[in-house]
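Progress narrative, work stream C.
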Amino acid sequence: MSKTELFINNQAEQAEASDWLERVLPTSAGTVVFIGGGLGHMIEALEQRHPKARAVVLEPDADVARALSARPDWTAWATAGRLAVLTGPDYAGVAQVARQFGDLATAPVIVHPRLQSTRPDTVATAKSALARLAFQSSANDGARRASAGRYLLQTLANAPRLAREADVEVLSALFSGMPAVIVAAGPSLDQNIDELKAVSGQVLIIACDTAAKPLVWAGIDPHFVVATDSSRANATHLSSLLTTRSWLVAEGSLHASALVHFPQRTFVFRVADHEPWPWLTSLGVQASRLNTWGSVATCAFSLALHLGCNRIAFAGADFAFTEGRPYCRGTSFEPQWAVWRHRGSSNQDIWKLLMDRWPPTTAVDIHGASARTAPHLVSFRDWIVEQTGRHTDHQFINATGAGILAGPRIAQATLTSAFAGGDTIDRVLTDRVLAAAHQSARGDLARVMEGVASVFEGLHGDAVARWIDFAGGSVQASAIELALRSPEHEAWSAGRLGRK
């Protein structure tokens, strides 16, 4: 059946779409997912029934998707964030849509009736993409709800530290044209370490926080360590480090213990513009956004792009449980594993317990075999693959040697074959450049202290109310005040009293 026969743009088709949608659509709708969008008749019918609804269309036919996206009457929908069109067979753009539409896990799914009857395999492929999309959307929304209170309180408590540090924006294109290696803590990092040592003088090394300790123990000082997770447990990856000269690129909500080894050696970013950043920004604390997509590895990738690196490799980026292990050896998880071993568990028992937290999931690895992974790891891999497709002037290399990181724009190679013999990067000069950039972008600590004092004096009641609302009622005003009563503020208040 031709496209013309399948999608007829006339009044009869419009009436048919409206009548059919009347039968299958719930009485209320926020976001509606269409598999097979045709030329827009279904969306027109949705507009008539639910003028404020949003639509995600998974269209298997590229020509039809282009025609739908080009219709001028849908421009306003797209501009307002109410319409997203993904095109088969790969449905690229899943990551962005999942972030934009937070209710996809519960959204009704409408399959075009003619598509269902004539191309069931195509519908099955679209549903598989939708399942991945719904997982990512649900994970994003769940993470935001679960961590909102902690995010708020720890960001407020960090306010004096953030004022002494620098905005990540100052790193933009600072190392344009330099090669970089992103190092994650996947199981294969154990095999990648020696090659990483061999090329460490020719590349910028950007380590995920989980990988920092194994690298430092191996005598490799990363140029940057990236941290996004605000949990106290995750902070141990940084608080347990030996002396390091690395620069920290940190989300502003990290647990305070994660920052202790990096005074005036931290570049701060934020994952969104939500509370309490409007208030902090009003006090001169600047923290630009880095695209994280829920993972420190994806954030490290965003940092490499932000720095201007044009040849970006990955090491230890399995995104899978290679050899039945969740991580490489030497992370800050090892002390806990040692306790469990002392109580009678084997390493295999421990690793299986950790992997079994996630639904059994498999994916094709870089060698064409089946690899055990987890839904969130697949979503992180998919996001990176999607992003590499958008940067056609960059070169991307997976030097992990195992796992599932593969895509049309990602070459599979070793670190030595990719970088050995390259120009040497002067570490002393690099640190001087970073120090100068940091000094140029530090905040105003006194201004922040004045702002905290005004909160205590009741002058920012509207901000406090917004903070409580943002946290979903999980924090009270007393907890906010306690978070703001930092040692720095107590010292500043004592000094101010002494000057009066």
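Work stream C, second folded protein:
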Amino acid sequence: MRRLNSRFRGKSRRTDVLSFPVASAKGLAGDIAISLDIAERNARLLGHPVADEIRILILHGILHLAGYDHETDKGEMAKKEIVLRRRLGLPTSLIERTREATRKTSARSGRTMARSSI
């Protein structure tokens, strides 16, 4: 995952999920790569089954394949992910987790942030 993230996103660090849209193939959305190591660790830390964590990562990846981008869409992907997560009965989504972690970190440092970047 580190190599894929570096090659395709220019970020030399591991990541939990990557999406690779297919622009020209009819009926195909693209591919999703998931780090099982990170999924297992997150599931353990968050107290839910690994299968649920993988479903959360798949949902996140599918939203990217559908054209959503939480880094630039002013919360549109986050809203969609929350609605779908709840409908599917899944635990907290990636975007929700990251925002909560950012809030906790900001509170400890005495800073207030309106939005987190994921």
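The longest strand covers residues 17-21. No further action is required on this item.
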